Amino acid sequence: MTTTAHHQVGDQRKRARGVLGSTGLYVSVGVAALLFLVPFYLIVRNALSTDPEITGENWKLLPSFQWANISELFDDPTVEFGRSMVNSLVVAVSTTLGTLLVCSMAGYGLARIPYKHANKVFYAVLATLMVPTAVTFVPSFVLVSSLGWVDTYRGLIIPGLFSGFTCFLFRQYFLGFPKELEEAARVDGLGYWGAYWRIVVPNSLNFFAAIATITFISAWNSFLWPLVIGQDPSSWTVQIALSSFMTNQTVNFHLIFMATAISILPLVFVFLFLQRWLVQGIAQTGIKG
Amino acid sequence: MSTTTTRGVAQPAPAKASQARPRRGLRGNPTLNFWLFTGPFLIGLVIFVFVPIVWSVWLSFFDARYTVTPSNFIGLDNYKQILTNSNFPDSLLTFSVFAAFIVPTTWALSLGLALLVNQLRFMRAFFRSVFFLPTAVSYVAAALIWKMSIFSGVRFGLMNTVLGWFGVDNIAYLADPTPPWYWLVIVTLRLWIQSGFYMILFLAALQNIPAELYEAAAIDGAKKGWQTFRYITLPQLRATSTAVILLLLIAAYQAFDEFFNIIGTKATWAQTPLMELYKAALGTNQDYGAGSAGAVILSLLICLVTLIQGKFMGFGRGDESK
Questions:
Q1: Interface pTM (ipTM) of the complex?
Q2: Which of A48, B86, B113, B203 has the fewest CB atoms within 10 Å distance of its CB?
């Protein structure tokens, strides 16, 4: 009784403060949100403008909606933008699927298969977390070029599959996976392989979706490795293509911004549709680069 | 017990293993399965992580210009060279200053956003999405917008347009390193891309603070606002804060994408450590030895930072062995 009464008083007080406080709160959140949206507005506005509209002295809020900029970008023979989008898609999708397969299996093995040296193997994996991936690009480039993988999908995809960090996240997740479900698998006479594919994976789809989203985003957005490995324009990913626009002497503003807009679009979709998993995954796992 | 027997009959080969662990485990030999599951990953890890690291350390002791299979052992000369005859130490110093600035500002902004969003009753998911959305944008794309639209040094740039309304002359943000306006460009870009991600971490942590703590504080007469924040919220966020600071520090020393695209490698200012390594190893000299030496130094530095931070954060927390 007393607690409910206490709560009611609290609620009333909250409500009284609420009207004053929440106006201020929503104003400040609203202003911050507008500032965060400005760059998105600029991309869309500039992408659908003509060059004089972008570079003119008089700032116009709305563009003249040049939808033809899209076809102009893809038809431009001097930039292989369509090709770079395809490259990015192939790389990001394969990296995501490959990482999920390889790292989740390893994580499961480390977490759940009783093997007496499992912890030693786990420490070897942990040790790789100490060396930042960006710093190893010099030796990795040396290795990949001596394998003859420069300018190939193999070179872009395979070295990125073996993320100690993703493996670590899967291990932590599988440690918390309910043992009862595996008990059921044991009763059904399944082996590790069967239990993994028929019990563990189908019951972990949320976590897989979260890791998939994070992996896809970082693969799509990665720059240094594709820059190092993609020497020929036909092997450029979309980030390298964008970067090359910036250093080009002839600047077609409307095409540059259209390319930027299109390069961001897939990820905005990923964000809007998979946000639930993404937020949950990040909150659960804590981290990405 | 009965299941053990049945499995023993059905699978004579792994029966020994089953008897050793009568109540646990699935059918099949654990050792074999362990290697089947972890093997593909471990092979890749050895080839694409361990081998490059070892190779890098090895290269750093050799004269390795234009070659990755050098024969001329030169000891610590590469280290001496990259620390004296290049801009690498300067870049380390510059980026320590950069880290000292970007880490607290991102920390404060992401925490501030999390506190704001956490108080919202309506449209919380909407505002969370808005602040989080920049995480989807690559540094390259953001660099493009920042360089060519917001901070382009001419009148049509957004910043100069806005300043023009107040009668301020055009500022060339990127053309001239004095005064260093380019830091404004870089810092705002990084804040925009990073903050939403760390805001999510703080939001998760805020929601894990038990409500009883606030109730107890209210009974003890703590005023809402600063006092509860200072004595309840902040201490409860300590683990998340240290994790965030660690990640931000590592990210600051690994900066590359936006500096490469906004400043470029030809400039003499604001060259990040990775850009210096990129120039040393993949530039005109192709000096893999010096590049590797720099990579080793940078790795050690980041490890040191991680270890110091890890002391506070409890790095080995995930070690619940079975």
A1: 0.86
A2: B86
